[in-house]
Write a structure and sequence with these properties.
This is DUF4920 domain-containing protein. By secondary structure, the chain is an alpha+beta fold. 26% of the residues lie in helices and 33% in strands.
């Protein structure tokens, strides 16, 4: 019986710890998330687009403006592109960290790997749900599309 109680207490403690919310620091200039990085050597989103026009991927630092953040828990952001192009999706290595909701409108430098990939209808709908889009907007997603996707090891707020 003592073993059962000890096992029950251990399981309860494990569940409580694993469900604990870590506080996410507000997005202010100089705040880092994930791997600590600096802004030196970062290229712009426009330069990234040019680099990906001639090769399959890019590894390094990218600077851009955050225009959206995942409404569920900050598990991804999107970066602004010129014109009416789809924004660039940025996810985080192994979902090891999350970003705050107040990062929208901030300029960040991130370090990671970028590539052009096809995003399936299923994933587009998943991201749209996470962004809080309406069922009508989600229903309009019917075709896969080519997108730039980034997996970031670290993010630094610079403006």
């Amino acid at each position: 019986m003592k073993k059962f109680i000890a096992l029950f207490v251990a399981a309860f403690a494990f569940i409580a710890i694993s469900n604990a919310q870590t506080s996410i620091q507000p997005a202010k200039v100089g705040v880092s998330y994930g791997k600590k990085i600096d802004k030196s050597g970062a290229i712009s989103v426009k330069q990234l687009e040019k680099a990906l026009a001639s090769k399959d991927n890019y590894t390094g630092k990218i600077e851009g403006e955050v225009i959206q953040v995942c409404k569920k828990k900050g598990c991804f952001i999107t970066l602004k592109r010129e014109g009416d192009q789809e924004p660039i999706m940025v996810r985080f290595t192994d979902y090891a960290y999350f970003l705050p909701q107040d990062i929208t409108g901030k300029t960040v430098v991130l370090e990671g790997r970028a590539k052009v990939k096809e995003t399936t209808v299923e994933w587009q709908k998943h991201y749209a749900e996470d962004m809080g889009k309406s069922k009508e907007e989600i229903a309009k997603i019917t075709k896969p599309r080519k997108d730039i996707s980034i997996v970031a090891d670290g993010v630094l707020v610079v403006k």
